[in-house]
Design brief:
single chain; mainly beta; Hypothetical Protein Tm1070, Chain: A; seven-stranded antiparallel sheet; 2 helices; 34 strands; globular
Length: 476
């Protein structure tokens, strides 16, 4: 029989062990649950609020002609003068003439930089807009041209131009900044990428302009697309295209940058006029007369399955849609058939990011012209639109939402006018030369067109770039 004292000693020891373990558990749990002293040291930081930069826009200046002086085949010369309209709700606009890459003089014969100071502490840039218009007429170059005065950028896509027979295209680079800009041009055509040694390392001097003839880099190109990239200063890039058949000028246009590569591109306000005359001219095999078309480039390495929809604005016949595959690295032009005279919103939906723009031709009683329409970005609630004097202007607004949107258009010194932009539709309003404040336009996309007998031109409306946001700076 076991010793009762031994059993008691063993039991006491086991009990003591259990009690000790329990105390340890309680101690650990207490250490876990009870708040411990916080000895962490926060990293010292300071919030830096950048001084808002001045807002800048650049108007590209008058159209240029090469070899106007027989003594210099590559020298550009201005043809006539452009009229400019601009305005702001902030401080006064400061106008600076940029040094032209031509034999032009001053003022309306040169690119102009428009500058407005941004008040300190502003969270949004001031309302600011400018545009130019010119009805050029010479023995070699004629046509209606217009352009928005645009913000400088380090990356721009130009979807326009041609260097085939009778076509002349110039890439206009304007640098309003205080440092030189080094520009590289990547050029793509219907046959693929163009290898052009002279397309890189192009220096655009501070406060100056550089004119690059596209034919010297991509000769005999029917459908070029140019990607403009810069280091150093930023530039405003514009494509000038003109067409001459025999000795007869057949139109001219200035085209700004289109939207960055995206799976959807929206082109507002594509206007078709005199399509019956265009059809008759095509039947007669007239060179340079083309049906409305969309030019598309696929910058990636995958082919694009593209659907194009053309929807008529109010009082315009309903549009239609098109589907096509566009090869990667190549430029394609897709004709927009079965349309009637009127204004349309063209929407390009793609399986991969693309860039796009649309082109139309106008034939009048004595003259012929063409226009390029680029894609645009959503606008803010309130913006300014500038309409230069010359041909009658039309403001086009496109609404992708599921609700009608009523905007108010107010001219400087005039009475406001309401315009209802229907859901998933578009509307337009005719405007005379003036500056206009447009309110309740958040999310809409817009453009401005000009038209006359055998004259046509267009530019897109773009929202301003954002101001610099506050930055938290941490010390090492």
């Amino acid at each position: 029989m076991a010793d009762k004292r031994g059993i008691a000693r063993i039991g006491a020891r086991a009990l003591g062990g259990l009690i000790g373990a329990g105390v340890a558990v309680v101690a650990i749990a207490g250490a876990t649950l009870l708040p411990l002293p916080d000895f962490a040291i926060g990293a010292p930081a300071a919030t830096v609020r950048p001084v808002p930069a001045d807002q800048q826009r650049v108007c590209p200046g008058p159209v240029l002609a090469l070899a106007a002086d027989s003594g210099s085949a590559t020298q550009a010369s201005p043809i006539g003068e452009a009229t400019t309209s601009y305005g702001t709700d902030g401080p006064d606009v400061q106008v600076t003439d940029l040094k032209p890459d031509s034999d032009g003089g001053h003022g309306s014969e040169t690119p102009q930089a428009l500058t407005v100071s941004t008040p300190h502490g502003s969270r949004t840039p001031p309302l600011f807009a400018g545009a130019q218009l010119q009805n050029a007429a010479s023995d070699d170059l004629a046509g209606l041209t217009s352009a928005a005065c645009a913000e400088p950028a380090a990356d721009t896509w130009l979807v326009a131009g041609a260097t085939s027979l009778g076509q002349t295209s110039l890439v206009l680079l304007a640098n309003p900044t205080s440092v030189d800009a080094t520009v590289s041009l990547s050029i793509y055509t219907e046959t693929g990428t163009v290898s052009a040694p002279g397309a890189t390392g192009i220096v655009v001097p501070a406060g100056g302009q550089k004119v690059v003839p596209l034919a010297g880099l991509a000769p005999a190109a029917a459908a070029p697309v140019v990607h403009v990239q810069t280091t150093g200063g930023e530039v405003v890039a514009t494509m000038q295209q003109s067409f001459e058949q025999g000795i007869q000028p057949q139109g001219a246009e200035l085209t700004g940058g289109t939207g960055a590569p995206s799976r959807q591109q929206v082109i507002p306000g594509m206007t078709i006029a005199g399509l019956a005359k265009v059809t008759a001219a095509q039947s007669g095999e007239s060179v340079g007369v083309e049906f409305p078309a969309v030019r598309i480039f696929v910058p990636g390495d995958k082919d694009a399955e593209v659907t194009i929809g053309a929807v008529g604005e109010e009082a315009t016949a309903a549009g239609t849609s098109y589907a096509q595959t566009v090869k990667s690295g190549n430029v394609a032009e897709i004709p927009l058939e079965n349309l009637k005279d009127g204004s349309y919103t063209v929407t390009v939906n793609s399986s991969v990011p693309v860039v796009a723009a649309a082109r139309t031709t106008s034939i009048g009683t004595k003259t012929r012209d063409f226009a390029w329409f680029v894609s645009s970005e959503p606008l803010r609630d309130t913006f300014l639109a500038a309409i230069p004097s010359g041909a009658g202007g039309t403001l086009h607004l496109t609404n992708a939402s599921e609700k009608d949107q009523k905007v108010t258009v107010t001219p400087d010194g005039g009475k406001p006018t309401d315009l209802v932009v229907p859901a998933e539709g578009a509307a337009n309003i005719g405007l005379s030369a003036n500056r206009y404040t447009v309110t309740n336009a958040d999310g809409l996309r817009g453009g401005v067109t000009f038209a006359g007998d055998g004259l046509t031109s267009a530019f897109a409306l773009a929202p301003p770039g954002p101001l610099a946001a506050p930055i938290d700076v941490y010390a090492h």
